[in-house]
Amino acid sequence: MSKKILVLIGLLGMTATLLCGCWDSTEVNNRSIILELAVDKNDDFEYDETKLIDDQDIYTVSYTIPDFGKLSGTNTLATDVENTIEVQAPTLGSSVDDLEIKNKNSVSFGHVKALLFGESLLKDPELFKRAMDGLSRDMLIARNVPLLAVNGEAKLASQIENAEQPILGLYIMDYFNNGERATSFFKKQLVGTYIKEMDDTGVSTLPLFHVEDIEQNTGDINISGAAVIQNYELVGYLTKEEVRSQLFVEGKIESSPVVVPYSNTLLTYNVKREKSKLKFGDTPEGPWCLIEIEAEGSISEYLSTGDDKLIDHQTIEEVKVLIAEEIVKQVELGIVKSKEMNVDFLGIGEAFYRQKPALWMKYQPTWLATTYQKMPISIGVNVAIQSTGLED
Q1: Nearest residue to 208 via CA among 194, 219, 224
Q2: Could you tell me if 183 and 194 are in contact, meaning their C-beta atoms sit under 8 angstroms apart?
Q3: Which of 77, 145, 206, 367 could form a disulfide bond with 149, CB atoms 3.0-4.6 angstroms apart?
Q4: pLDDT tens across 346-377, in order?
């Protein structure tokens, strides 16, 4: 038998061995697969110089682990399918050791579906930054994991009983990944994009996780609005309408209704898609900004009768003007809020820098101090109507 044939037989034998076995010594039922983390600042913590660093309970971390025994087989309607283990530790990294003390399995972070941060933690920039560093470094959490803020304690949010999906992390992941969801009052945030925004501008927003009765662990889940983060510190909250303004400025509105009064009734225009462009210029009084918005959609609800039918050019143009005026009002909500907070969460400064770098250098030193506050921001909206809806 030739040498080449012997080598070939050997390779085939190795391939068969690799295909028929698992080389990982840890079976799935011996792993604790973390699906979501709820991270809070321990408000009761007081530094005790007599204790070791490892005994300083700075963070409270709630780890949610699914019960694969209940999830397997035909029992698809199982309840209590996850277990939440709460630990306190000086760092996120050391909290894993405390978790494994309370759990017989090894811990895996490769399938984390959501990260929730409590309000107290978000208000402490040093602790929040340390937490993000620890989560994105050694724990090997993917850059596409959703981030959410909780107006209160994150650990209470992680304990909510959700009839639609008993595993909260999977519910949030599906919520974020639903491509057919209307993009109107909710802007998703991921680990990777959050880190990039912090590096680029120092400003970002986290979607806000609401529960009807968080203290009783019951009620409908609502993800809308946002927490505004500047330099890793919570500086305020946005309503869902102000997030809608942010999305209009960023050109991300999809399948979203705009309601206007017309001819003694209400007319609903559904924005199927939208894009925006920011333009800048300079005057002796300072820079100016123009936000140009192109909205494309259809009339989704309006029962026209008699002379009110939306068929002639003049009537349609009147409706376009009303819709454009309403969109301008909605965009102005975010501009006013941004200037009130003195935080450029709309990304106007970033667009200014990219489009007019030389002009940006002139105004960058005074951008938040005076320039942004005084900058006139105008809005131009062009509305395209594809369909005028039903007529009698």
Answers
A1: 224
A2: no
A3: 206
A4: 999 999 999 999 999 999 999 999 999 999 99
5-34: b (≥16 Cβ within 10 Å) or e: eeeeeeeeeeeeeeeeeeeeeeeeeebbbb
Judge contact between 244 and 184, C-beta under 8 A: yes
CA–CA distance, 129 with 345 (Å, rounded to integer): 19
Distance between CA atoms of 321 and 161, rounded to whole angstroms?
Answer: 46
pLDDT of 110-144, one tens digit each? 888 999 999 999 999 999 999 998 888 766 688 89
Name the CA radius of gyration of the chain, rounded: 27
CB 272 within 8 A of CB 298: yes
Q: What are phi and psi of 283, to 5 degrees?
A: -135, 170
User: Residue 80: pLDDT band by 50, 70, 90 thresholds?
Assistant: low
- How crowded is residue 291: how many other Cβ atoms within 10 Å of its Cβ? 22
Q: Using CA atoms, how far apart are residues 379 and 325, in angstroms rounded to an integer?
A: 10
CA distances from 114 to 12, 111, 117, 128, 174 (A): 42, 9, 10, 16, 11
Q: Are the CB atoms for 112 and 191 separated by under 8 Å?
A: no
| Sequence-ordered alpha helix ranges (H) in the chain | 3-20, 68-71, 92-101, 119-122, 125-136, 154-158, 168-177, 191-200, 240-250, 313-341, 348-355, 357-363, 372-374
Residue % of the chain over a pLDDT of 90: 50
Q: What is the DSSP letter of 344?
A: -
Q: Cα torsion for 114, 117, 122, 125, to the nearest 10°?
A: -60
CB 127 within 8 A of CB 43: no
**Which of 7-11, 40-44, 168-172, 183-187 shows the lowest mean pLDDT across its residues?**
7-11
pTM of this prediction? 0.83
Instruction: Provide the residue type at 263 as one letter.
Output: S
3-state secondary structure of 126: helix
Give the pLDDT of residue 310. Answer: 60
CA-CA distance, 228 to 187, in Å (whole number)?
Answer: 12
The answer to whether 234 and 174 have CB atoms below 8 angstroms apart is no
What's the CA gap between 83 and 164, in Å, rounded? 18
Sheet with strand 59-66: strands edge to edge = 82-89, 59-66, 36-41, 114-118, 147-150, 203-213, 218-230, 233-238
